[in-house]
Amino acid sequence: MYVFAKAFHAAGVNVCYIRDRSDRYPFSQPVWEDQPFTMHYEEVPRASSWDWVRWTRKERDTGWTPPTWLVDPLDPASAQTTPVGLSGLSVLDRFWTRRFLRAPHRVNALRAMRDCDVLIVCGIEGSILARFSSKPYIIWPHGGDLMIAAGMLQPPAYQFRHRVVHGIMARHLRSAFDGAICIGNHEPSGISSAYWGAEQYIQKLNVVFMPIPIPVRPRADATARRELLSALLREVGLDMDLGGLTGFVPSRIDYRWKGQDRLLSAILMRKSVLRAARTKIIFSGWGEDLQHAKNFAAQNDITDIASFLDVAISKPLLFRFYDCVDFAVDQFTLGMYGTAALEAMAGGCPLMIWLNNAYERSWGTPPVLNVSTEEQIAQGLESIVAGRYDLEAAGKNLQDWMDRTHGARRVVPEVIAAFENRGSVPRGW
Length: 429
Hints:
This protein has 19 helices and 14 strands. The protein is of the alpha/beta class.
């Protein structure tokens, strides 16, 4: 939502971003989007339990200041004395809602929502509060919120009390999804491919194509990129010889959801070719299979090819990697692209990923190197280092596709049109 808000503000829309003070996860913070800094992988889960005083200190230390269009529900200035009306709700709904709104940040967020004309929301709290706001709203789900609404994620049966509370919350969340003008997403099969088992529920929703508006960035030439990458690697503490092409894996290392084990096996299969070309592939420094990946590289003598960051990096540093490396490698299991892939493409960085054929039946598959199996990945790597795959042309084509498909000039007016048309899909979607 912060990315949406920045794009709308840049387009001249009078936007209000209501900060989510229920989510302390580092990658969810606006400072993670705006300021360059790193966190060791072990620090990421610990930071999720920081109090807001410590987060404020972190923001100050990085030099971050909130934009003028950000509303903080914890700011005393956002608190109002106007009562939150709950007319029209059943007795049970009113009881649950009063308990839900005991948290000051929730009631202040709801009041801020009611000062807006229309809303775009994400997550459990945002969706439920939007339902109570009496304002027209669109939900852009992040994943878990939709799966809870579909009944896919539930506490264990023996946690009876937790299960009851979860059930009430899930019912309110379903009501929020039912009351939305539409459900936005950029996954062409109607967001069903990423939510196995939830397809029947999703088919009942009004899902429309709503791209995340990510601006295109200029791309330097190969010589300048090599110099910039050398400086960046020194900055993040990675000493590396850059004699050949360099690839970058931005996503968390998670074999089940991202499939980097296939990439490591493919590197092993083409070890001699990649080594002869002095190819380097840099992996992100976080994810539950990070240590497994490091062990695999060490045990199979490919550490001269596969290197691992020691830290998780914020978005400005991530963008600098996209803008410096020769190509990026994303996931091989989901069949769809997420923000990591989009951010790479916006910088003109050639991308290796697996996208399912639903894209061909919708708005068109982006011009990526589309592979999935270990052998396909190995062949793709070999074609890159052998020069058979034109990286410069691929990057330019990706930027053109991004500008047409995810450019703010397209997205902003069409989101506004979705509100005006009350959820009917604008022409061209």
